[in-house]
Amino acid sequence: MGAIFISYRREDSEGHAGRLFEDLVEHFGPGSVFMDVVGIEPGRDFRKVIDAKVADCSVLLAVIGKSWLTLKDDTGGRRIDHPHDFVRLETASALQRDIPVIPVLVHNASMPTQEDLSPDLADLAFRNGVELTHARWDSDVSVLIRALQAYVTPESATTTPTPKPSDKTWLKSLGGVAGLAIALGIGYFSFNAERTEQEPKASREPAEVATEAASEAPGKAVAVAEQEAEAAELARKRKAAATELERQKKEEAIASAEAARKQQAEQQAQEDLRRRKAEEEAARENAARIKANRLAAISTDGMGVRQISLSRVGDLSGNVAGYLKQIDRQTWHETDASSNRAQFTFHEEGRTQQAVFLFDHDRTMRLRIDLKGLQVTNQTLGKDEFSPIYDISAASGQPARRSVSAEEEFAFGTTGFRAVTAAIGGRDGEIRGYFRQTSASTWKETAAGSPDAVFTFELEGRDLWSVYLLDRRREMRIQLDLFHRKVGKAPMGSADFSPLYDIVSAR
User: Which domain holds residue 329?
Assistant: First the structure.
């Protein structure tokens, strides 16, 4: 036969639950409907009775009003969250036993969502419910009764009905009213009047009743169909609303995740930028420190350098890739770090205090050894700019030259040669004579084996590798070219020197 369990919260839906109880008892019989007020004998432990009734019922009606979910206990927390809340215990017990649970919405209440409920009640959010309204109470209850007929069979028509409660407060007042009626002696009259009113209906002929029912059948069928259509439409709308809500939640979750991802990516990019800047700054400081250390370790300048240690451009590890070595006065070799074999040969073009210039005739390329910038650069003929090809990690040779006075600078020139003596050789290397500086402004040419001057010259000037003399008596200029190891002559006022002697040695 089965039984219906009505679960409700007094503060939320007591009146609706009592009215529903009456209608269900009227249809299914008093033994098929349980509600705590009328179903528990005095002195019984209502907790045990409720648990047993839930276990024995075929379906549970969860009557939900506007405050069903939000009612608070003495501590300020939601009652539905308390593990000993009877409404929670009733509903959870039915869900755990896989007993059908039908939400019954009253007072225009909304279905609770899964997020609103504890895990043991979460399944309630997915149960299809019905709505009871005052305006459509009879039709709404009819829809509910048709649904309950799948679980509960009405009791026999001969079963004697029990008094129907309207709500819990009304039952308490009923006892006082009945006692007062008895004291006034009107109870008997009320009883007989009720019977007199009911008896004509009971005394009607069966045929009359059947005819009346048949005449009302078409209208009832239409009403039932309309109610079913309304119920189906309501269920469809609720399902659509639940689906839309779920879609919106998913979209919000995706948008939130994407925003968090973008924020994390931006933070990571900023952190990477700060790290790169810090690394670049550290690299610059390290490069400056290494350069300063290399400059401090170099004890020669462009005038005295004889060997250069080479490293790859930007290599701060100190690894040596090769060397540039002066082989003789005019020749340099480039070697790798593992051997002394010359890879390239260069002709020295000239020097300054800060640089040495070399030329590669095979590749028509000029090299500049820049001791100030600590780089070796190259220049292709026809182009103005120099491009770095090596860093200088070390330089060795003669010590850096000391500062000299103006008088010394004039006397000995920027070439660094002092008291230059030139030996003049013939085809066979025979010494023919000498050029000697006799004063700050005077030079003499003497023949081999004779101390007497053959010619006397006036010092005209000096450059990096040459000394220029002037013989006014013969209107002649002399060039002591120490770079090419030649003595040349030219008419006064001319720079077109023609070879006169080879220079064998100089000091």
Answer: 305-397
CB 462 within 8 Å of CB 451: no
For residues 16 and 106, give the distance between their C-alpha atoms in angstroms, rounded to a whole number: 7
Tens of pLDDT along 426-448?
555 677 788 888 888 899 988 87
Q: At 398, phi and psi to the nearest 5?
A: -75, 150
Please say which residue of 397, 414, 449 terminates a domain.
Answer: 397
* Nearest partner of 291 among 269, 271, 313, 275, judged by Cα: 313
Given the DSSP bridges, would you call strands 305-311 and 322-326 parallel, antiparallel or unpaired?
antiparallel
Domain tally, the chain: 4
On whether both 31 and 154 belong to a single domain, the answer is yes
Question: What does the block give as tokens for 142?
Answer: 């009819």
Structure tokens that stand for 494 in this block:
């001319």
Angle between helices 187-203 and 168-184 (to 10 degrees): 110
pTM for this entry: 0.34
Q: Tell me if residue 281 falls in helix, strand or coil.
A: helix
Q: Residue ranges of the alpha helices (H) in 29-133?
A: 36-39, 46-56, 86-96
For residues 153 and 12, membership in a common domain is answered with yes
Please name which of 479, 477, 481, 478 lies closest in space to residue 465, comparing C-alpha atoms: 481
Model confidence pLDDT, tens digit, residues 34-50: 987 555 678 888 778 88
User: What 3-state DSSP class applies to 503?
Assistant: strand
Site of tokens 């013989």: 471
In three-state secondary structure terms, 199 is helix
Given a contact cutoff of 8 angstroms between Cβ atoms, the answer to whether 390 and 311 are in contact is yes
Residue 58's nearest CA partner among 3, 7, 129 is: 3
At 83, is the secondary structure helix, strand, or coil? coil
* Tokens encoding 113: 């969502």
Q: How many CB atoms lie within 10 A of CB 140?
A: 23
Q: 312 in helix, strand or coil?
A: coil
Q: Is 141 exposed, middle or buried (0-12, 13-18, 19+ CB in 10 A)?
A: buried
Q: CB of 324 within 8 A of CB of 341?
A: no
C-alpha 219: how far from chain center: 68
The three-point CA angle 110-115-121 to 5° equals: 80
Secondary structure class of 299 (helix, strand, coil): coil
Residues 162-218: pLDDT tens digits?
Answer: 444 444 433 333 344 333 333 333 333 333 333 333 444 444 454 554 455 455 556
